[in-house]
Amino acid sequence: MTWLTPALAGIAAAIAIPSLLLLYFLKLRRRDVEISSTLLWKKAVQDLQANAPFQKLRRNILLLLQLLALAAVLIALAQPQFEGERATRGRHAIIIDRGASMRTLDGIDGDGLPGVTRLEEAKRRAIELVESLREPGILSGFGGDSSADEAMVVAFDNTAEVVQPFTSDRSLLRAAIESIEPSDARSLIDEPLRLVRAQAPRRTRVDERDGGIVELPPDSVGTIHVYSDGGVEGGGEVDLHPEDVIEYVAIGDEDAGNVGITAIDAKRQLRTPEEVSILVGLQSTAMAERTVAVELLIDGVSAAARSVTLPPAEMRSTSDEFGRAQERLSPATGGLEFRIERARGATIEARIADGSGLAPDAFDRDDRAWVVLPGAKRLRLALVTRGNLFLREGLGALPVERVEVFTPEGFAGIRDPFARFDAVVLDGWLPEPPEAAPFGLPQGGWLVFDAVPAGPEGLTDLGATGPTEIVDWFRDHPTLRGLTLSGVSIFEGRPVELPEGGAGTVIASTSEGPAIVALDSARTRVVCVPWSVAESTWGLDPSFIVFLGQAVRYVAEGGPGDALRASRPGDTRIEVLPRGVESAQLVKPDGERLAIPVDPTGRAVVGSLADAGLYALRWDGPPGPADESVDGDARRRFAVSLLDGGESNIRTAATLTIRANEIEGATAGGAAARAPKPVWPWLLVGALAILMVEWYVYNRKVQL
Prior knowledge:
The chain is of the alpha+beta class.
């Protein structure tokens, strides 16, 4: 048993007990009254009144009861409590993982009844820790050890937020923990640890030479409690104090297995774009063979279903970055290909179901994935050149409706080229820039070779350089999907410079600078290759033909012709809307609508993508080339799918690695499995009960 405020109780006892006893030392001073009998009078007035000092103290039941009640109150003031298993005293940072894998249902029983999500279990254990913290004492500050423990609450996935700053108020901490909601994003541990370190007490000292204040490194933040299943990334770059203590509370089952969708894509055939190939990638972390059925839905209607058997996952011995041997799970992978005919655009969904009669899936967030497929279209192209054999032959090999070749003088006489063509390919020449054109080109889709489009948001030509080669490229960009450019040599390079804060994206680079740049605005899309293909080895490489096909479709349709770019939960998208649109609405998968501002260039930054599903941007105005018109509004759909092998691996990690230190997981609730038991509330109840007995005895004596 410990006493939180013994000094306060001692001071009160020194005053209250002598005062009570003094009342019983007072001698009665009586007056003479004639009565018929003295028996009843004596019983009625004995020890009930006193107005003179120094009578002899007698044995009295009232005095005993009053002393007992007073003793109970005084002991309660000292705040006794029985110590249970509890957290270390001081400051505590409670970090709770809310990432996708924390939605896992552990404890599914044989009847298929769901258990508790890992996030709910983490919140329960965090509240246990809060209940174990020491609160401020009664009349804190009047004596004794009355300081309280403090704690803060941080929730994290791929971002982190302080839900509750440091406080000793348990009710605020409980409310903050209960308010944490799950997301489908992956979990990164670095940001929450940095947030916690930012709350460390600041230290200063006075400079002995000039008397100025010198800032010292922050002090230790205290004990950091991480509630997670260990499926987190990062932890190696965090700057911690040597005295910071990290406790990893492992949530979940170390043997949990799962099958999930980790990849999905839809591609139209190059020569027959009405034919669509849909690829679905699967991953299994179960230690036994699993058979699942994959169903394909087109615009919400079932179109096909197939089964696939995945082999067992394996444990393999590997070494971490510090050379330490460790056992790691190697998931089993597999996939399916569906082929459909679809000329129109569609939303495509793949979902899996367990075909082996096992218990329901403990983690269903990766059982569905979506892509948005634009409609098929045979493009009409214009090539403006003075005679480039590579471009003539390359465009002629594409499955397009037609390719018309112009000289620069002949093309300049066409008033509205995009009334006849879906995209224009320029070779070594640029048209006269119209007024207010962001890239110095009229509205439309342009593929530019051997020229540098300027304009307010265009590129700056840095001049010719010597031989170089492509060393890096954006493999996920629609124009470069599936391509390898490592063997491309450029005999005469032409680096360019992008304006700061502009709408350009470098999609391939040489050692000298950008080699291929994409420029996007509301009505203009440009892919620029500023150097001459004839002065390189690229024209003889098969990747050049594929690049031409993907690039012209990208600038013509605002997309690759295959599945539109999907996002992952937690991502932020930048969508370019038609000029003149000032605001839009984001329609989330659950139907909730959020207002999205649009800047004057038509760029809309779309966040709040915490959950997987189909999203839509709607606005009042004209639709773009790849948009739809629904009920008088323009609509642009896009998909958000988990597609994360790390989050689909729901096995709870036994250790958490922070700055090369492996922290063993505490699975029994951490350092606060049982809170200390305060005794003072029961003492106050006992004092009240004694006072009631004393009142009853007093009234009985008066009646007698």
